[in-house]
Amino acid sequence: MEIFIGWILGIISSWVIAKIFAKQSSSELESKLTKQTTKLNSATSFINFERMIRSGKWQREDIENDEVWVCESNNLFQFKRSEDREPFREKWTSVFPDQNGSRFHINLMINGIVVRSLPFVSGDGGRYTLPLPDLELMNEEQVFIWYRDDIDVLIAEIIGNYYRYNSIEQVAKFTKVELVRGRKQNA
């Protein structure tokens, strides 16, 4: 009988101890996750990301068949080309000999979490990789515009393919997309 009572008490005490530790572990994990999520979502994280895009060195990696660009000084900052594509054609892409273009996104990631997704265009059968220009009305005429200091243009300078050209400035002249200094007003 004493063995049976000892066995029951052992089971009960083990169960109580396990519950207490599980509860503490869960709340600790939840607290840590909340802190990390807050840190990743904070404006300072994205400001740091943008700073890295402007001044950091980036290296292209093929990770699990995905094209990923990794910041050499802090590999938590990455951008990755999405697999989702849709056919794309606009007036500014009509200068390309191959009219097969597609629209896709570049996902900006911090520690593997997508913090922003930017639309890009693959033009001339993949020979060009360019940011999707803004369409604005100037003097009652539609104008396609890239803003020189916007993050999508800066990323294009890192990952962009310009085929016969050496810079986005040259591609802008070729495609008749206005390339203006500064940033979008709402950026």
In DSSP terms (H or I, runs of 4 or more residues), the helix count works out at: 4
Oligomer: single chain
Helix fraction by DSSP (H/I, runs of at least 4):
25-40%
String of helices and strands? HHEEEEEEEEEHHE
The domain count comes to 1
N-to-C terminal Cα separation, in Å?
76 Å
The total of beta strands comes to 10
What structural category characterises the helix and strand content?
A: alpha+beta
Low-confidence stretches: none
Q: Summarize the biggest pleated sheet.
A: 7 strands, antiparallel
Radius of gyration: 25 Å
**What is the beta-strand fraction?**
25-35%
- Which outline best applies? elongated
Mean pLDDT: 86
Quick recap:
The chain has one domain.
Structure description:
This protein is of the alpha+beta class and 187 residues long. It has one domain (41-180). The protein contains 4 helices and 10 strands, in the order ααβββββββββααβ. Strands 1, 2, 3, 4, 5, 6 and 7 form a 7-stranded antiparallel β-sheet that branches. A 3-stranded mixed β-sheet has the order 8-9-10. A hairpin with a 2-residue loop joins strand 5 and strand 6. The longest helix has 40 residues, at 2-41. The model has no long low-confidence stretch (mean pLDDT 86).
